């Protein structure tokens, strides 16, 4: 069992005029990584930021925080090299956005980044499975991508359970509506990388929320290893 529990706040719901400070605040509160949501207004009906912002963030907060780029964009091939140059660590693209996932996986690796592969709620996990052996992380979306603060879709959990049963050491991330109310279901299903936006960022005590999310996942991982 090679995977470990990690919590990555999504800064989508934070004060975007203070993005660098918000990222630092999340790391100070115990975040393991930062989940940065890139939206192009085409793949999803919302617009955020691109590689120039990532470059500024990297310069401002230093080399250490791990940047997981959630690329909600129509042509993910276009931004691989600019994101690598800007200091991204992991490039998570959507399976629905490309006709050639194999080539894109290769390009991401050649650019020196880790590879994440995301699926929207309407995409089956069987469609992701052929690529699972070539990626570092599978992202199971638990809302329709595009906006923070939506309701967690519990009916996505069978996808996570199936992936965990088939790929025991794969990093599996959940994203959308994840917080203290939904973390138990994510952890029991087998997710180990937890994205949480509004539940962490809008809390008066983000440190406690991050610790709670992480502890639930640690306990589930321990239980799974005892059951084996
Ligand atoms: O990718 C996303 C939306 O498309 C965000 O990462 C996600 O929604 C996180 O925010 P919240 O926890 O508030 O749902
Ligand atoms: Fe995201």
UniProtKB/TrEMBL annotation:
<dbReference type="GO" id="GO:0004750">
    <property type="term" value="F:D-ribulose-phosphate 3-epimerase activity"/>
</dbReference>
<dbReference type="Pfam" id="PF00834">
    <property type="entry name" value="Ribul_P_3_epim"/>
</dbReference>
<feature type="active site" description="Proton donor">
    <location>
        <position position="175"/>
    </location>
</feature>
<comment type="similarity">
    <text>Belongs to the ribulose-phosphate 3-epimerase family.</text>
</comment>
<dbReference type="GO" id="GO:0046872">
    <property type="term" value="F:metal ion binding"/>
</dbReference>
<feature type="binding site">
    <location>
        <position position="37"/>
    </location>
    <ligand>
        <name>a divalent metal cation</name>
    </ligand>
</feature>
<feature type="binding site">
    <location>
        <position position="175"/>
    </location>
    <ligand>
        <name>a divalent metal cation</name>
    </ligand>
</feature>
<keyword id="KW-0413">Isomerase</keyword>
<keyword id="KW-0464">Manganese</keyword>
<feature type="binding site">
    <location>
        <position position="70"/>
    </location>
    <ligand>
        <name>substrate</name>
    </ligand>
</feature>
<keyword id="KW-0170">Cobalt</keyword>
<dbReference type="InterPro" id="IPR000056">
    <property type="entry name" value="Ribul_P_3_epim-like"/>
</dbReference>
<feature type="binding site">
    <location>
        <begin position="197"/>
        <end position="198"/>
    </location>
    <ligand>
        <name>substrate</name>
    </ligand>
</feature>
<feature type="active site" description="Proton acceptor">
    <location>
        <position position="37"/>
    </location>
</feature>
<feature type="binding site">
    <location>
        <position position="10"/>
    </location>
    <ligand>
        <name>substrate</name>
    </ligand>
</feature>
<feature type="binding site">
    <location>
        <begin position="146"/>
        <end position="149"/>
    </location>
    <ligand>
        <name>substrate</name>
    </ligand>
</feature>
<feature type="binding site">
    <location>
        <position position="177"/>
    </location>
    <ligand>
        <name>substrate</name>
    </ligand>
</feature>
<comment type="subunit">
    <text>Homodimer.</text>
</comment>
<comment type="function">
    <text>Catalyzes the reversible epimerization of D-ribulose 5-phosphate to D-xylulose 5-phosphate.</text>
</comment>
<dbReference type="InterPro" id="IPR026019">
    <property type="entry name" value="Ribul_P_3_epim"/>
</dbReference>
<dbReference type="GO" id="GO:0005975">
    <property type="term" value="P:carbohydrate metabolic process"/>
</dbReference>
<dbReference type="InterPro" id="IPR013785">
    <property type="entry name" value="Aldolase_TIM"/>
</dbReference>
<feature type="binding site">
    <location>
        <position position="70"/>
    </location>
    <ligand>
        <name>a divalent metal cation</name>
    </ligand>
</feature>
<keyword id="KW-0119">Carbohydrate metabolism</keyword>
<protein>
    <recommendedName>
        <fullName>Ribulose-phosphate 3-epimerase</fullName>
        <ecNumber>5.1.3.1</ecNumber>
    </recommendedName>
</protein>
<dbReference type="InterPro" id="IPR011060">
    <property type="entry name" value="RibuloseP-bd_barrel"/>
</dbReference>
<dbReference type="GO" id="GO:0006098">
    <property type="term" value="P:pentose-phosphate shunt"/>
</dbReference>
<feature type="binding site">
    <location>
        <position position="35"/>
    </location>
    <ligand>
        <name>a divalent metal cation</name>
    </ligand>
</feature>
<keyword id="KW-0479">Metal-binding</keyword>
<keyword id="KW-0408">Iron</keyword>
<keyword id="KW-0862">Zinc</keyword>
